[in-house]
Design a protein that fits this description.
With 208 residues, the protein is α/β, with parallel strands linked by helices. It has 4 helices and 8 strands; from the N terminus they run βαββββαβαβαβ. A 6-stranded parallel β-sheet has the order 5-2-1-6-7-8, sandwiched between helices. Strand 1, helix 1 and strand 2 form a beta-alpha-beta unit. The termini are close together. Bound molecules: pyrazine-2-carboxylic acid and zinc ion. The site of pyrazine-2-carboxylic acid has 9 residues, from helix 3. The site of zinc ion has 6 residues, from loops.
């Protein structure tokens, strides 16, 4: 992989937070391993954006907020289907903090998402009602960014939704495949890899 990134390139680091890594609410294996390579990569970009999943307690995406409902099942919200999750990334909790080894000082912008009780947000660009914007599109455009490199957690949820929205917003988009970690819920990883591939996303292995 080339070491030369352009001033029109941005790195978007999605949800590298304790709850998505080993020992957190999702306890995904492989989370910790992507942190140091992401730090090294971030130093090469002139625009680095990190996202932070940041829910109030009692968030509507938590199974615990819906009596009788189980995590990893789907319900219908006013804005469409919503997967229910274990309680995670609660504002002020350890799980919501970035992984302790993530070099957050490399970030020019940190976007917090999923902050409204009744609305989840996977994408770094638009929340799950597909109308509420995070402002990232305008931020990137005003810095002259034309290409987005995306990595982080989870490949098949927040990373994929961010990647597909980056394409929708007109950015050339690259998924850093080996710097992303998946949840893989009932085949969701393959579904999203196919969707990204169909959308014209380039897959890149950073360590190759
Ligand atoms: C995520 C499920 C719930 C993610 C966030 O970062 O992919 N997944 N909240
Ligand atoms: Zn969440």
């Amino acid at each position: 992989m080339t070491n030369e990134f352009k001033s029109t390139d941005a790195l978007i680091v999605v949800d590298v937070q304790n709850d998505f890594c080993e020992g957190g609410a999702f306890d995904l294996q492989g989370g910790a391993a992507i942190v140091k390579p992401i730090n090294a990569l971030a130093r090469k970009f002139q625009t680095v954006v990190m996202t932070q999943d940041f829910h109030p307690a009692g968030h509507s995406s938590f199974a615990s907020s819906h009596p009788g409902a189980e995590a990893f099942t789907q319900i219908e919200m006013s804005y469409g289907p919503q997967t229910l999750w274990p309680d995670h990334c609660v504002q002020g909790s350890w799980g919501a903090e970035f992984h302790p080894d993530l070099d957050t000082q490399a970030a020019h912008l940190i976007i917090r998402k999923g902050c409204q009780t009744g609305l989840d947000s996977y994408s770094a660009f638009v929340e799950n009602d597909r109308r509420t914007k995070t402002g990232l599109d305008g931020y990137l455009r005003s810095r002259g960014v034309t290409r987005c490199f995306v990595c982080g957690i989870a490949t098949d949820f927040c990373v994929a939704w961010s990647v597909l929205d980056a394409v929708d917003h007109g950015f050339e988009t690259v998924l850093l495949r080996d710097l992303s970690v998946e949840i893989d819920l009932e085949g969701s990883l393959q579904v999203q890899l196919d969707a990204m591939s169909e959308a014209g996303v380039r897959f890149l292995n950073h360590q190759a």
